[in-house]
Amino acid sequence: MKTHNIAIIRGDGIGHPVVDAAWEVLQAVAKPSGFALTGTELPWSCAHYKETGVMMPADGIDSLRKYDAILLGAVGWPAEVPDAVSLHGLLLPIRKAFDQYANVRPHRLLPGVEGPLRRGGFDILCIRENTEGEYAGAGGRIHQGTPQEVAVETGIFTRMGVERILRFAFAQARARRGKLASVTKSNAQKYSMVFWDEITRQLAAEHPDVEVTSYHVDAMAARMVTAPESLDVVVASNLFGDILTDLGAAIQGGLGFAASANLNPDRKAPSMFEPVHGSAPDIAHLGIANPIAAIWSGAMMLEHLGEKAAADRVMAALGDTTGRGIGTVPGKDRTDAITAAVLSALS
Ligand code: NAD
Ligand code: IPM
Ligand code: MN
C-alpha cells in the first residue's frame, strides 16, 4: 500500500484541535481509498519557544525536507511571544525555504452556509505570492526611540518571483473559467506594482484565451463584497493576498471555512497545508473552533499527493455536514460535534 509521510505541526491555540480533527478525517479516508498516511508530530510552537528559546531547532528546515507534505495548524501566541518572533521563526521560513511560492486559497460557500452576503454563486480562487514582496523582511530602524526615528520596510519584487506566480495564476485560470484578476496598487506604488502590471501584460499576450483584468487592491476589496460572482482567479502580492483572503474567508462564512495550500509547484520540496486562520486566542480553550478550514486544507493536501478521489470524498463529507446545518454558524456547534458529523458522513 502506498504510504505518504506527513510532518504535523499543530503550533499554537486552536491549531491543536483543528489539526487533530483534520488528521482523524484524513486517516478515516485513507485506508478505504487504498493508501496509508503516517504522521510525525513536531512540537514547534510558542510553547516550544518558551521551553527552548527557539521556535524550531536549527536543523528544523532540513529535517522537514524528507516529508511528502506538511500539515500545519496555526502559529502565534502574542500574549507570551511577540508575533514577529514566532512567525519569522517558524511559518514564514518554511514557506520561503521550500519555495512554496503559490499560496492557493479557495473562497466559495459550502452547502447550507449562508455567509454575510446572503447570496452564493461565487467561486473564487485566490493565488497569493508567498515568498517575497512586502514579506521580504528587508528593512531596519534607525535612531530608535528618538523623535528622529525612521522605520523602513522594503518590498522586494523580482522578475523571477512575479513572473512565476503570474504564470501559475494564468494556468489556474485556464483550467477554470478563463478569467484572471491581477491585483496591484500601481496608482500609488510606482516601482513594484507598475513592474507587476507590466509583467501581467507581457504574459497576457502569451495567453490570449485568458481574459485578464487589472484591479487596484482597494477596488478589489469592494468588488469581493459587491460582485464576488464576477471573479474567477485572483492573483495578488504577499500582503495584498493576505488581506484579501481574510476578506474572502469572511464572505464564505468566516475564517473557520477558509483553507489554504502553500505549494511548491515544481515539487522540489514539500508543500504545506494549513487553514487561513490563526491560533484564535480568544476562543482557544472553548472547544468551539471550526475544524472545517483545517479539514478542507487536508483535502487539498490529499489532492496534491495524487489522492484526488479521497480528496473528493472529504469535500463531499464536508458538504454533507454543512448541508445538514452542522458547523454552518460560528460558535453554534462544538469542534468535536462537527468532526464527528464529517466522520459519519464519510462512513
Ligand atoms: P485569528 O485568525 O487567529 O482570529 C481572528 C478571529 O477569527 C478571532 O475572533 C477568532 O476567534 C476567529 N476564528 C479564527 N479561526 C476560527 C475557527 N477555526 N473557528 C472559529 N473562529 C475562528 O487571527 P488573529 O487573532 O489576528 O491572530 C491570532 C494569532 O494567530 C496571532 O499570533 C497571529 O499572528 C497568528 N496567526 C497565525 C496564522 C498562521 O499560522 N497561518 C494566521 C493568522 C494569524
Ligand atoms: C496567513 C497569516 C500569516 C501571513 C501571518 C501569521 C504571518 O496571516 O497565513 O494568512 O500573513 O501570511
Ligand atoms: Mn492572514
TrEMBL record:
<comment type="pathway">
    <text>Carbohydrate acid metabolism; tartrate degradation; D-glycerate from L-tartrate: step 1/1.</text>
</comment>
<comment type="similarity">
    <text>Belongs to the isocitrate and isopropylmalate dehydrogenases family.</text>
</comment>
<keyword id="KW-0479">Metal-binding</keyword>
<protein>
    <recommendedName>
        <fullName>D-malate dehydrogenase [decarboxylating]</fullName>
        <ecNumber>1.1.1.83</ecNumber>
        <ecNumber>1.1.1.93</ecNumber>
        <ecNumber>4.1.1.73</ecNumber>
    </recommendedName>
</protein>
<dbReference type="GO" id="GO:0050319">
    <property type="term" value="F:tartrate decarboxylase activity"/>
</dbReference>
<dbReference type="GO" id="GO:0000287">
    <property type="term" value="F:magnesium ion binding"/>
</dbReference>
<dbReference type="GO" id="GO:0051287">
    <property type="term" value="F:NAD binding"/>
</dbReference>
<dbReference type="GO" id="GO:0046553">
    <property type="term" value="F:D-malate dehydrogenase (decarboxylating) (NAD+) activity"/>
</dbReference>
<dbReference type="InterPro" id="IPR024084">
    <property type="entry name" value="IsoPropMal-DH-like_dom"/>
</dbReference>
<dbReference type="InterPro" id="IPR050501">
    <property type="entry name" value="ICDH/IPMDH"/>
</dbReference>
<keyword id="KW-0464">Manganese</keyword>
<keyword id="KW-0520">NAD</keyword>
<comment type="pathway">
    <text>Carbohydrate acid metabolism; tartrate degradation; 2-hydroxy-3-oxosuccinate from L-tartrate: step 1/1.</text>
</comment>
<keyword id="KW-0560">Oxidoreductase</keyword>
<dbReference type="Pfam" id="PF00180">
    <property type="entry name" value="Iso_dh"/>
</dbReference>
<dbReference type="InterPro" id="IPR011829">
    <property type="entry name" value="TTC_DH"/>
</dbReference>
<feature type="domain" description="Isopropylmalate dehydrogenase-like">
    <location>
        <begin position="5"/>
        <end position="342"/>
    </location>
</feature>
<comment type="function">
    <text>Has multiple catalytic activities. Apart from catalyzing the oxidation of (+)-tartrate to oxaloglycolate, also converts meso-tartrate to D-glycerate and catalyzes the oxidative decarboxylation of D-malate to pyruvate.</text>
</comment>
<dbReference type="InterPro" id="IPR019818">
    <property type="entry name" value="IsoCit/isopropylmalate_DH_CS"/>
</dbReference>
<dbReference type="GO" id="GO:0009027">
    <property type="term" value="F:tartrate dehydrogenase activity"/>
</dbReference>
